[in-house]
Amino acid sequence: MTRTTSVTFERHPSGYRHWKLTTDGDVAWLELDVDADAGLVPGYELKLNSYDLGVDIELYDATQRLRFEHPEVRVVIVTSAKDNVFCAGANIRMLASSSHEWKVNFCKFTNETRNAMEDATAHSGQIYVAAVNGTCAGGGYEIALACEKILLVDDNSSTVALPEVPLLGVLPGTGGLTRVVDKRGVRRDLADVFATRPDGVKGRTAVDWRLVDELVPRQGFREAVLARAKEFARTSERLDGEGVELKPLKHRYVDIARSGSEATITVKGPEDDDGWLLDVTRELDDAILRLRTNEPELGTWVLRTEGDPAKVLEHERAVFDAKDCLSNEIVHYFKRTLKRLDVTSRSLIALIEPGSCYAGLLLELALAADRQYILDGPPIDDEDSEERAAITLSEANFGRFPMGNGLTRLESRFFGDPDHVPRLAEVCGKALSPAEVNGLGLVTDAPDDLDWEDEIRIALEGRASLSPDALTGMEANHRFVGPETLESKIFGRLAAWQNWIFTRPNASGPEGALRRYGTGQKAVFDRKRV
Amino acid sequence: MPTKIDYDARIPNNVDLSGDRRLQRALEGWQPKFLDWWGEMGPTLRTHGVYLRTAVSVGRDGWAHFDHVNVPDYRWGIFLAEPDPDRVIGFGEHKGEPAWQQVPGEYRADLQRLIVIQGDTEPASVEQQKLLGLTAPSLYDLRNLFQVNVEEGRHLWAMVYLLHAYFGREGRDEAEGLLLRNSGSPDAPRILGAFNEETADWLAFYMFTYFTDRDGKYQLGTLKESGFDPLSRTCEFMLKEEAHHMFVGTTGVDRVVTRSAELIREHDTFDIGGHGGIPLDVIQRYLNFHYTVSLDLFGGETSTNAANYYTAGLKGRWQEPRRKDDHKLTDAAGSLSRPKADGTWETEEHAAILLLNLDLREEYRADCQTGVNRWNKILDEAGVDFRFVLPHPGFNREVGINSGHHVTPDGTVVDERTWLAGKRKWLPTPEDLTFVRSLMHPVYERGKIASWVAPPRQGINGKPFDYEYVYLS
Prior knowledge:
By secondary structure, chain A is α/β, with parallel strands linked by helices. Chain A contains 21 helices and 18 strands. In chain A, helix 3 runs antiparallel to helix 19 and helix 4 (139-145) packs parallel to helix 6 (176-183).
């Protein structure tokens, strides 16, 4: 597959090709109506409401706007605008023609979007309801699984299905397998039957097996769904407050510089602007997505910050104290963006220098990194300066921004030393010197001004010489210590297996299931179990 | 305001020490520890001035500056051969690219390891030779011992310079580690086995400087080819000094053999022990031991590490530029002899790049043979019917494919019992060591020499043999 243009992630409902977003009081309708000819990349047709990355980028945009622009919306109904088909899932020809890293990146992004839907339900009181009004297979059912409730049309023919294993030789990798057993509590033997049946399960059986929550008659389907949505809305705990429009990005606070195999991402702190945290989060989110998708060979991301740490903490305090719908959304958005960083398959190296502002929530960027270096000395270009690097812990580092494994980044960092985090709470709010930071185990190393440039250069060059695959595996293991959650299972266990399966001849080989799907030829499997 | 130190006067150098704050600070931390180490582990014998050669610059005049020096005040310097701004890497996958002036991050760990291992051998021999001054056969020899010792010290400085200048804090830690390990220490021995052996007598010292320092020459020769230019230039200058150590070894053994031949002629017997000489078969056993222990320093005959260092451009072959091949060795093959359980040898084909240690060892073996020929010539001219032989590379080996096999000096693979029965004939026995030690009485009078060794043909720097090379009182 060749791509000639780079992928962008900014969308607006007025330009959606595949979704219709309408709101009506406390209910929003999000209707999938894929334009088969508007695939992101030429070479496939998005038949039967099947999706590619472009469809999912719009879905992601919609979930964001619903949270920020529509404080009144308490229920989001996800349904199809087409007859007899809800969604056929990820487009198979797209998958078959995609490079490995594209497939993997696609799965990651779709999973993040599904997680964002669940996050909206859990933390913003926007309850997602899937109104499955026709065939619902694979990734289609995985969209439904990301919703809090699944209503299935009772037409005696519409089914939900996860046919990846029998038809494609791959896994329902957008969290399908995991959510069936972990989230919905489907019995494992029934899940096994379900996930190996290409035709899926319909009606009463689907309810009995817990694959869906309710059946809704075909006649008057929309009205019935709306009525149920209104009931769900009454249980919502969405906070009151003003919405804010997500305007086009201005790229004021996040700067990307490229050199060799590195991208240096510089995040700037606030000046006197109220909207800083939302803007910086949007820009950072966008930067992560664009780098991840368009520049896979930039294997190391160097994270830097610039600004006044006091202003970061002041801004953070104001957001935390507001306790309204918007501030809640901003905090959770920053949390999701950090998680996006956590699951990014790039080496993350944080540089803490004089003039940086790793305080409170911005310190989380450094804690998300695989290594942190603090400069113990004056700025490199001004050895007479009194300025020194420092970091400051705040409430933000002690539970506001959990990782996918349910732990804070500090808890993850000091997993083997659980007494350490409470001790760190005692220095909360204090600007810590490089020596203190090093002593407290908050950085990997604290080279002085004479060593700094060489140490950093050598560390980065050394990193660049290692196998990217091995690094990805290593980093993913080191970042997520301790307990498993649905999320960590999706990004760790499920994604890892899927990545492996994607490269196996049984899926991707010339006679593999993914390649032969739709050709009328049967896949040829190597019967050896590995 | 701290006093400004005149670095260039205290530490002769050509690396702009006075303009390099990082290096100054590193050396300021390290030098007192080095002097402590020298005080504790350096020569036991106290002197009041030794006629030493000091390098004060790399030029023709500067590198051999002679004067009486109080040994602890010796000015250990930092010298690299003159740079060639157009130098390119001569081998491996980076062949043809400009030589690196900085450590490539990709190879930091490997380069650091190579330098640490080389650096570890330099102070080791000082430690091994600590007591020898107490039994020197002449002032001339005593002076040579100290010359070797201070230059080993300077070679340590050379490696420490690289660690300090290019490897940051880890490099400084490693530089300190070079002083914390000690030859033969049960807790922190030197990294390579041969450097934990005792150098108990002067025959061993001559053998060590002939065979073991010669290994150093070959290792430095491969590092001189390195794509990391500061290492290359450092090693090039060290090779110049190393030549003197081998001179001490070569002429030392010469003189022992000469003296033994004289005594054999004089008394018309090979059994010259009773006449204060060292019998030729004892010398052969010393040779066997020191040669084979030094062979172990070359590592296993097949080595993926060496191959990786080569491909990466870190460590080349002996005289790499003179080799007539592609300098990449991706397709070349070579053969290796392996002892078999049934007592025969078989030849195995291997990729040439995996046989780089063997390649270097063969260069070394050929070089060692020239010394043996030279000593045999002395015997021949004296009309003594005895010839020294360099033992087979499979003999008495602890490292590589021969370890665990019993190979005689002539290359016969035998069973353990046969080997043990022959061992007393082949390797120094406790009686040999005791006997040689019994001859080791110090001779500190000008112009005098011990009974077991002939005086040198020439003195140092045009001075006569009876010059007062060392002030002892």
